[in-house]
């Protein structure tokens, strides 16, 4: 048991952070892709259709009829969600502004948990754990954050 613990303690933070960044980015990116037309990029399945993204009509309908966030009009909420689900995952994947991007997605996760899918805590708890880990520890050495700020 002691050997197993020692082996586990040698798992590098950078490996955990890279896996976490890739995994949580995929969750939000794929969700964002359901809200737009004209741009279809899925590196896992090898799908690349480049074009100018446009908010889909179904995204606005989703926010109007199913999500119904308080205080935010559905048209605005759909644009905000689609934008956030494309920008922040890319930032995380690159390890650029990692702590900020993780915080933004953590806030988004909280909004989803509280107002949209309150029974999905097991899923959102896992997302929150990964995002909080990235906020606390950063992106690791395989990141633009490390490359840009290692000299300071």
Automatic annotation (TrEMBL):
It comes from the Bacteria. Keywords: Cell membrane, Membrane, Transmembrane, Transmembrane helix. It is a multi-pass membrane protein. GO terms for cellular component: plasma membrane. It is found in: Cell membrane. The chain crosses the membrane at residues 127-149. It holds the Pfam family DoxX. Belongs to the DoxX family. This is Putative oxidoreductase. It comes from Microbulbifer rhizosphaerae.
